[in-house]
Amino acid sequence: MGKSKVYFTNLHTRNNDNLQQKLARLIKKAGIGDIDFNKKYAAIKIHFGEPGNLAYLRPNYAKTVVDVIKELGGKPFLTDCNTLYVGGRKNALDHIQSAYENGFSPFSTGCHILIGDGLKGTDETLVPVEGGEYVKEAKIGHAIMDADIFITLTHFKGHEATGFGGTLKNIGMGCGSRAGKMEMHSAGKPFIKTDECIGCGMCSKICAHDAAVVTDKKASINHNKCVGCGRCIGVCPQDAVKAASDESNDILNRKIAEYSKAVVSKRPQFHISLVMDVSPYCDCHGENDIPIVPDVGMFASFDPVALDVACADAVNKQPVIPGSLLDKSTDHSHDHFHAVSPDTDWKVGIEHAVKIGLGNKEYELIELK
């Protein structure tokens, strides 16, 4: 296999040439126009940002991608799936409201938002994972799998569990339904925090396997009956049902790679990653720390694996921002992500992605001015 092509442009601008125009030129040069968009539905997978976090991508970049796809005859929509944890994006109504608050609306981006796994995170499609070692059938948001074409627009940053949050994280974890996210995060099954349970019985009513029962006004889950679908998490009004979150970071990274393969297989795909505001932790946090390195630029490729490696290499070449969490680390191995989150190894996920045929870690970087 030859090297994959990754296209790059820096963030310098001049008169009559802004960043949105540079992004449009970048993705066109990288070959997005080779995809037949004519009258086809194009899912643009993005992270709208948890309320309180200000490191997420501005909606202006989404509009640029939307405009290019419309120019090519496509029908784009912005999408993400609901979160496993409690926050501003745990159901479709809150999720869309959070997106609006952060500036993503049909008026600012030129297209609509569809939450991939529906109102409560249970609208999913079971997708076989060819070559999967940990996942045989990935649980992917139905609207995402319904799309004809799959595009990602990723904010490349650090991540406390996977080392960095790049394109594979945006695809694999981001497109998983609630049950899918639980499968990636957990080796076990959900449990009830009894001190938060009010015994309303919603978990028992939604459970198709009679695993959730209420006794003495408190719910419990019989793990011998539970199949790990996660529906009880979505319906609990008190957020008393929790995922185990007991999977190792290395296995988490491998599962993300396998979920990513399920999402992109057998349909046109294209990926964009913006390396700016490189916060140490995920945009899922309701806050963000200062960036760990200076802004780098914008990248695009048909290969999500090569794209992640190119972005990671670019970040690791950058100087450390004084006073950042990276600056406070005692790890001087020149792997900025491991230095910030020592319990992670992002290379594990990359190696597994290559192994299962998702992409190539060898790349040719083509720079545009």
Which architecture of the largest domain does the CATH hierarchy give at level 2? 3-Layer(aba) Sandwich
What's the β-strand tally? Answer: 16
Shape: globular
Structural class by SSE content: alpha/beta
Write the element-wise H/E pattern from the N-terminal end onward. Answer: EHEHEHHEEEHEEEHHEHEEHEHEEHHHE
Q: What is the share of helical residues?
A: 25-40%
CATH class of the largest domain: Alpha Beta
Radius of gyration: 20 Å
CATH topology of the largest domain: Rossmann fold
- Number of helices, where a helix is a run of at least 4 consecutive DSSP H or I residues: 13
Quickly count the domains: 2
Sheet with the most strands, sense and barrel status: 8 strands, mixed
Unreliable spans: none
The overall pLDDT, averaged over residues, is: 95
Strand content: 15-25%
Structure description:
- It is globular, with a radius of gyration of 20 Å.
- The strands form five sheets. The protein has an eight-stranded mixed β-sheet with strand order 4-3-2-7-14-15-1-16, with helices on both faces.
- The chain folds into two domains: 4-186 and 248-367, Rossmann fold; 191-242, Alpha-Beta Plaits, CATH 3.30.70.20.
- It has 13 helices and 16 strands.
- It is α/β, with parallel strands linked by helices.
- Residues 188-216, 217-246 form the 4Fe-4S ferredoxin-type domain.
- Ferredoxins are iron-sulfur proteins that transfer electrons in a wide variety of metabolic reactions.
List keywords for this structure.
alpha/beta, Rossmann fold, 16 strands, 4Fe-4S, two-stranded antiparallel ribbon, eight-stranded mixed sheet, 13 helices, 369 residues, Alpha-Beta Plaits, 31% helix
